[in-house]
Hints:
Number of domains: 2
Strand content: 15-25%
Helix content: 25-40%
Oligomer: single chain
Distance between the termini: 34 Å
Number of helices: 4
Shape: globular
Number of strands: 4
Radius of gyration: 17 Å
Amino acid sequence: MPRLMLSDELWSKLEKILLQHAIYNKPDLRMTVEGMLYRMRAGCPWRDLPRAFGCWNSVYKRFNAWSAAGKWLKIFKALLIDPDFEWVFIDGTYAKAHQHSSGAASDQPEAIGKSRAGNTSKIHLAVDAYGLPVAFD
């Protein structure tokens, strides 16, 4: 079994927030969320997600559905409790986009630009004095 990110105490707090944002309490909810966090931490392809987290495709589909519905953003905002704005640090990085990721017929803005390295998107993160994220764009 892979190393888990959330202690039982943190999971109980996060579970309450998830349930408040219309995420159903299925029996595999914790392992699904742990799989999503593992994938974000490790940066591995979805297909390489350890089997202990469940079927990679199921975890991927739930992650995409929650993202498309704006649930992850609502969860992120719910976790922002009393930030310390004595200091705010901002950092940015470029994330490489797939060569076929831009140019689709869509009304949505894509925020994908060209550089020497190919298609990229800039990501910004602001953290408070404790190093906890307060905003990302």
